[in-house]
TrEMBL record:
Keyword line: Membrane, Transmembrane, Transmembrane helix
Recorded superkingdom: Bacteria
Transmembrane segments: 26-46, 58-77, 89-111, 123-145, 151-168
The keyword Membrane is assigned to this record: yes
Name this protein carries in UniProt: Uncharacterized protein
Amino acid sequence: MTPHAAILSRNLNFVRRALPGWRATLFGSLLWAATMGTSALINLLLDNWATPEKIRTVSLLFAGGGALAFPVGLFVARLVSLGRRREVAFAATMVCLAAATIGLTDGLYALQYRSYYAEWHAPVFTLTWGFQLAFTMAVASYQFMVLGIRLYFPLGFIALFAASLWFAQQRR
């Protein structure tokens, strides 16, 4: 075996060991989606938000972001903390799961925002359309960071802490 093949094999084995099991991925994604959607729902209801349809849309958006984020965050946390102490696993889960949840929910929000404004944009794949797409997505991301992240508190943060504790207790 060549040295490059040995390194590649070792790296692939490391990544393979970091892959979470299907049960943890499936049930964790469902639970994380329900928790993130519920967190948004509670905050919107407490704020006496606009209409039931908009509350439902935002709650489903947060649930969808949570469902997509859990497998990604869990995999990256396992990859970072593989073979390390529990403190590292706890911190890795806090950072990776939070970043994945916020990032993927932000991405879904930006896509929904873009689809709303698409009818006023230039024809697809023109230079003007490219600028409109980039700036619409950037504005949507900024808006989510300013207005959307608050919907994760306090329930989402408590769930993040609990998920990090659960992950740190798992066998390394």
